[in-house]
Design brief:
Layout (H helix, E strand, L loop, with lengths): L1 H100 L5 H15 L13 H22 L3 E18 L1 H12 L3 H12 L6 E15 L8 E12 L2 H6 L5 E16 L2 E8 L1
Parallel strand pairs: 3-5
Antiparallel strand pairs: 1-2, 1-4, 2-3, 4-5
Helix pairs in contact: 4-5
């Protein structure tokens, strides 16, 4: 009996020990299992995040052309803005030049141009007739006057003259006589009756459209300005005239009446007249 009791106690103790040991093993295994589960979850989360990142990258790549277009658009806008700035800068420069022109004094230019006329005429005014001259003296002066004009034309024909500040009166199409007009003119010159001759001259020069034709060139009529009140140079000096002949239509159509222009050209001829206003000079340039 005692032996059975001891055996029972021994078995009970062993069973108790076994249960305790088993429980400890289970406790030790649970954290490992938990950690494994957590690791698996983390791996799944990483995979999910990687997928999301890849999707974002693909999305960004898809949007890149649009972004590039936006960048190009911005570049175009920047370029346009720069062009506008340059344009405003040019306008500002033009405005500044206009403001400076308010203080522009053309007197030195006019005096330089006047000097050209005076140099060309030289001493021709010595042969200008006056009311006190006798008939014999007038004839002598007129002859010397004509000779001096010939000398001036020979001296200056073909020479380049440059004027800096001339008043533009008008631009007129150049005309020439047609064969019909020349016939009319010859008849007029042969006519002895003064009244008939005057009538024919009126017909040729004023009432005959068939007597003249356009040459395709233009006569730019300019005058040397003269000073007036308030030191403005607006009135023209009728004694000093320039006829600039040009075949350049663009240039001819670009001139404006009442404005001032520099003119340069070679002398075609010089016409000098003894008028009641004084010695009147017309220089033809081409």
């Amino acid at each position: 009996m005692k032996t059975l009791l001891k055996l029972f106690i021994f078995l009970f103790i062993n069973f108790f020990i076994f249960c305790s040991t088993y429980q400890e093993q289970q406790i030790k295994q649970d954290p490992i299992k938990n950690e494994t589960t957590i690791s698996v979850k983390k791996i799944e989360e990483i995979k999910t995040q990687t997928t999301i990142n890849n999707q974002e990258i693909n999305k960004n790549q898809t949007q890149n052309p649009t972004n590039n277009q936006e960048m190009d658009k911005n570049n175009i806008e920047i370029s346009t803005n720069n062009q506008e700035k340059e344009k405003n800068k040019e306008i500002s420069i033009i405005s500044t030049e206009t403001d400076n022109s308010k203080t522009f004094d053309p007197k030195p230019l006019i005096l330089a141009d006047k000097k050209i006329f005076e140099t060309i005429k030289e001493n021709i005014e010595e042969f200008k007739t006056t009311s006190e001259d006798t008939l014999a003296l007038k004839e002598k002066k007129q002859k010397l006057f004509a000779q001096k004009i010939d000398e001036i034309n020979k001296k200056y024909k073909g020479k380049l003259l440059q004027f800096q500040y001339l008043f533009l009166e008008d631009v007129i199409p150049e005309k020439e006589l047609t064969p019909y007009g020349r016939q009319k003119l010859k008849k007029m010159e042969k006519e002895q009756n003064v009244i008939v001759m005057l009538a024919m001259a009126y017909e040729v020069f004023l009432g005959c459209d068939e007597c003249f034709r356009n040459t395709g060139r233009y006569e730019v009529e300019l005058y040397l300005p003269k000073s007036t009140k308030e030191n403005l140079y607006e009135e023209k000096d009728y004694r000093n005239k320039i006829i600039f002949i040009t075949s350049d239509k663009i240039k001819a159509f670009g001139y404006k009446k009442g404005q001032y222009y520099p003119i340069s050209g070679k002398v075609k001829s010089i016409k000098i007249e003894d008028s009641y206003l004084g010695v009147k000079t017309t220089i033809y340039l081409e």
